[in-house]
Specification:
Elements (H helix, E strand, L loop, with lengths): L2 H17 L2 H8 L2 H9 L15 H10 L6 H8 L11 E4 L4 E4 L1 H26 L2 H78 L1
Antiparallel strand pairs: 1-2
């Protein structure tokens, strides 16, 4: 009877040992976060590459120099994965400095893509650019109308000046005519007086002879 309790006691650890295999399954279950980590595509410290050399500010300056300026916030957003889990820029997030380091190759590719987008946008707007000739014609017509109005005002002023000049000339002519008439009247009066004096002189001479 003493042996049976011992045998029963020995069997208990064996079952508990079998039960202890459950943590192994849970340990395997914890491998999921590794896949999730890969899905975020945010490199861990061990994943930094030698090409990860540019800071966000330096990348923003490169975009500005390429005439496709982008804000630092946009650069940071491109370092993070989109809905499909893909980041536009190949980057590394330093856990200590808490900032991104970006590869120049991915920056150059993004700049080329932005330039292509800008070019397509410009080409798409060119058909609407054919409208300006009509607008230019309207502006030309407006300028011509304004020029005509200005010329008309100038002609009106010139006409007014001519009218004033003509009135002045007429006034002078009238004055000259009046002065000439007065001169003729005075001349006729002088002639008459001279005739009268001559007659008196003749009468005096004839009386003296007598």
């Amino acid at each position: 009877m003493d042996q049976n309790p011992q045998n029963e006691h020995e069997n208990v650890p064996q079952h508990s040992a079998d039960f202890g295999s459950v943590p192994n399954d849970s340990a395997a279950f914890r491998t999921v976060p590794n896949d999730s980590e890969g899905f975020r595509t945010i490199p861990k410290s061990a994943e930094r590459k030698e090409s990860h050399t540019l800071t966000v500010r330096e990348v923003a300056r490169m975009f500005e120099a390429a005439a496709v300026a982008r804000t630092e916030r946009s650069i940071v957003n491109w370092c993070q994965p989109n809905r499909t889990g893909i980041a536009r820029l190949d980057s590394y997030l330093d856990p200590n400095e808490r900032r991104y380091y970006i590869s120049p190759q991915s920056v150059e590719q993004a700049i080329a893509e932005e330039k292509a987008k800008a070019s397509k946008s410009k080409d798409a707007s060119e058909p609407f650019g054919n409208v300006p000739p009509a607008a230019e014609t309207a502006r030309t017509t407006k300028r011509a109308t304004e020029d005509d109005e200005t010329r008309a005002k100038e002609l009106e002023r010139e006409n007014m000046d001519l009218r004033i000049a003509n009135r002045g000339k007429d006034y002078l002519i009238d004055e000259l005519n009046m002065e000439r008439k007065s001169f003729f009247d005075q001349l006729l009066s002088a002639n008459r007086k001279m005739g009268e004096l001559e007659n008196k002189l003749l009468q005096i001479e004839s009386s003296e002879k007598k």
